[in-house]
Amino acid sequence: METTTKTGTLVEAEELLRARTHSPLVPLPIEVRGPEPNRQTPAVGQRTTRPDARTHGLGQTKYIDDFYVPGMLYAKIKRAGVASARITKVDTSEAEAMPGVVAVITGKDIPVNSFGPSLKDQPVLAHERVFHAGDGVAAVAAVTEQIAADALEKIKIEYEEFAPVLDPLESLKLETPGVHAPSANIYGHKLIKKGDIEKGFAESYRIFEASFRTQMVEHVPLEPHSSLAQWDANGRLTIHSTLGRITLGRADIARTLGIPMSRIRIIATVVGGNFGGKNEITTEPVIGMLAKKTGRPVKCTFTRPEEFYASTTRHPIIMDYKTGVTKEGKILARKVRLVLDGGAYCSWSETTLGKACILCAGPYEIENLVAEAFVVYTNKTMTGAMRGFGAPQVCFGYESHMDDMAKALGIDPLEMRLRNVLKEGSLSPTSQALHSVVVKESLLQAAKRFGWNVQGAGQGQGALP
Questions:
Q1: 450 pLDDT higher than 90
Q2: Taking CA atoms, which of 61, 70, 219, 427 is between 20 and 30 Å from 465?
């Protein structure tokens, strides 16, 4: 039943309750379309406009260090400055007496003083032991950033220093007790075996051995780690943070502060660079405690030096390669040992260890393979997530090794690779059948565009078109 008015037609309630005709159902199964194998996606090469480009270009983007909340305090963290030591005394009385200082906390004030994405071996603030020079020992909240920085100089800490372990190979040999006594220094291990390694070496025309090392690398984001915390009247904590992993961050903050995750809200802000270096909490539990103690909002931003000694870095890896080849350069056997320097804490070392070990053979068909990887503690800046998780380091190792072998055998390095690359259906080091493999095609296309040995490369393996 309908009623006509000056503004239109009103539909009565019973009309709304009547069954409506539905659109025909979509027949199952639904066809899912994906990119065609060996075809470039049309998105590559297209111009796109970033929605944040204008504000970035005009310098109008607001980062956490640009934020100000009424009544806000500024926090600074006192770093240990020693690589390995027992804390015997912490005196914060002078800092607490300074005009403008509102609160000081130490490791004993943290409800649950440990966190980590896998092993919970990292303290928010070191309490009894220091494991690297960047460990925080105390934190200050003051009315200005300068007063907070000055107050750090007034905190007196006494240490019983120990000889630090700085060489990962030395750490590998140490028995318990190690860096984190009574735990052993080796806290991660992976072993991959495929085929008969001794048979492969016995049949080889020549065996090459080489060792490669990569260094510790800092992410160096333009925006350092930064966060701002405030509690509401209902006991809920809100943190603006540069964190890249919000859920993991909430879980670690809940653990360290001893409150449910449901009472924590993290607001992700515009981030001025991450690259994996902002995957873990740093300042968040500290300012959470300071904000609770003072009843005021608290903000903390790392200095540039702190980014280098108090945040995570890329894992340095020592890589030992032994490879047996035929006279024509075909790889018959390869043995690899990796030693990852994890620094003072585990962080993402287990993930990095696994990926590095699986990928260390390179994109090559090797029937006989042994790859073994260890990760060890040292008293150095902690390592963690960084783009590639171990892949860039081992790529440097196996490709350098390929170049050395090609030169010694008198084979063009591109040709050496073409004779060994994975192809459709090849088995990975863990015996996974590989599909959509275009390593050879990619090398040939790149060589052609680059002008590398265009006439000779790929002979017998599909010459350059």
A1: no
A2: 427
